[in-house]
Amino acid sequence: MNVDLIFKIAAVGILVAVLNLLLTRSGRDEQALMTTIAGLVVVLVILVREIAGLFDLIKELFDLG
Questions:
Q1: What is the DSSP string of 24-38?
Q2: What's the pTM?
Q3: What is the pLDDT of residues 36-52, one digit of tens each?
Q4: 26 partner at 20 to 30 Å CA-CA among 4, 33, 44, 53?
Q5: Helix (H) or strand (E) holding 13
């Protein structure tokens, strides 16, 4: 497993947390919620790509396809 994946997810989390804090303090709760949801979607897309790569590796390893 590559450590870069952990750093990418952590960077997205830190960025979303800071934006959420700034938007909440300025009274824009709806935008803060949308930012949090967008960050979650970005992380899920990154994870789905990695899981798809894992499945491809398993298929290649066991010569399934």
A1: HHTT-HHHHHHHHHH
A2: 0.84
A3: 999 999 999 999 999 99
A4: 44
A5: helix 3-25
